[in-house]
Design a protein that fits this description.
The protein is α+β, with helices and mostly antiparallel strands and 326 residues long. 34% of the residues lie in helices and 25% in strands. The protein contains ten helices and 13 strands. The strands form two sheets. A seven-stranded mixed beta sheet has the order 8-10-7-11-9-12-13. The protein has a six-stranded mixed beta sheet with strand order 1-2-3-6-4-5, covered by helices on one side. The longest helix is centred in the N-terminal third of the chain and has 17 residues. The radius of gyration is 19 Å and the shape is globular. It starts with 5 loop residues before the first helix and ends in a 14-residue tail after the last strand. The protein binds adenosine-5'-diphosphate (ADP) and magnesium ion.
Length: 326
């Protein structure tokens, strides 16, 4: 699988696999699947695995691993506009370490309790450290935020600030972990991302397309564009950068981290311009920053422009597990 892209691989081997069922509303290809279980709402299902040394540093604090294993899945449900409900946890451990498990448990528990999620099952095995969470929730029948609804003329938005987690990872790996408050803040974003579940709920009925940013803005917005059959222009000067990121890198470096850094777990979404007042009100009510960064256009592909509207080259995009990394 060395040179094959993760996404080509998924399309080739895992789409249209198994039976065709009438109750599958949305299968492979979005942040989560939608199925009709006969209730008032649709069921929303996703699974994500964190592997030590790939998705989190092997020496990350145990509570951060517990937190993040749930958070990355919550982020996928947030990107569907769903209310989370139940989790299944599959844990692979090299050995039984009670201290590590106590930490993992507390990180997982705190986030689960805050989102009213019950752990209802799972699996425990021996092997290289990895945590896989399956998360289920609900969304209104016509409410799901999909990747395929962006239209030319829609505005492109992102929540929060981008790039911090990627910078935090650099400092963590360099062993420079507590040299300033800015570094500590970036590392906190890396270890304990706060998924935008409430914002996702508020976007139901407002956003035309939504994805969560796990692999970098350029790559993840790219998935919206591809699924929606459109393109976009993004203004580099509008990318939301945190004060800590600005203090740790040059403007140009910060923009590259914001575009290609993984692990932000913010939402990227599109909405018709007429929705802007409602969006602004909803975001303000939640205390979440939402920034308009660009516009959807008919021509496919992602285009970057500077303050003067001049085209800029796209930095290499997104983490792809089987595409040779960054
Ligand atoms: P995300 O980054 O939102 O978690 P992924 O990039 O992991 O999404 O996956 C993209 C899509 O492919 C999702 O819809 C996911 O459910 C699907 N997918 C990934 N791996 C597999 C697999 N092995 N079998 C079936 N579907 C898969
Ligand atoms: Mg996702």
């Amino acid at each position: 699988v060395a040179a094959r892209s993760e996404f080509t691989l998924i399309r080739q081997f895992f789409s249209a696999l198994g039976a065709t069922r009438a109750d599958v509303v949305l299968g492979v290809g979005d942040d989560a699947a939608l199925v009709d279980s006969g209730g008032a709402d649709l069921l929303v299902l996703c699974v994500d695995t964190l592997t030590a040394g790939v998705h989190f540093p092997a020496d990350a604090p145990a509570d951060a691993v517990g937190h993040k294993a749930l958070a990355v899945n919550l982020s996928d449900l947030a990107a569907m506009g769903a209310r989370p409900a139940w989790a299944l946890l599959s844990l692979t451990l090299p050995a039984v370490d009670a201290d590590w498990l106590t930490g993992f448990r507390s990180g997982f528990h705190r986030l689960a309790a805050a989102h009213d999620i019950a752990l209802i099952g799972g699996d425990t095995t021996r092997g290289e450290l990895a945590a896989s969470v399956t998360l289920a929730g609900f969304v209104e029948r016509d409410g799901a935020l999909r990747r395929d609804g962006a239209h030319p003329g829609d505005a492109v938005y992102v929540s929060g600030a981008l790039g911090d987690a990627a910078v935090g990872l650099r400092y963590w790996q360099a062993g420079r972990r507590s040299e300033s408050e800015a570094v500590a803040a970036a590392i906190e974003r890396l270890h304990r991302p706060l998924p935008r579940v409430a914002l996702g709920r508020a976007l139901v009925g407002l956003a035309s397309a939504t994805i969560d940013i796990s692999d970098g803005l350029a790559a993840d917005l790219g998935h919206i564009l591809e699924r929606s059959g459109v393109g976009a222009v993004v203004e580099i000067a509008r990318l939301p950068l945190s004060p800590s990121l600005r203090s740790l890198c040059s403007q140009a470096e910060a923009a590259v981290f914001a575009l290609t850094g993984g692990d932000d777990y913010e939402l990227c979404f599109t909405a018709p311009p007429a929705r802007e007042p409602d969006l602004t009100r909803a975001a303000a009510a939640l205390g979440v920053a939402v920034t308009r960064i660009g516009t959807i256009e008919p021509e496919p592909g992602l285009r970057l422009v500077d303050d003067n509207g001049r085209a800029l080259p796209l930095p290499r995009a997104g983490y792809d597990h089987f595409g040779g990394g960054r």
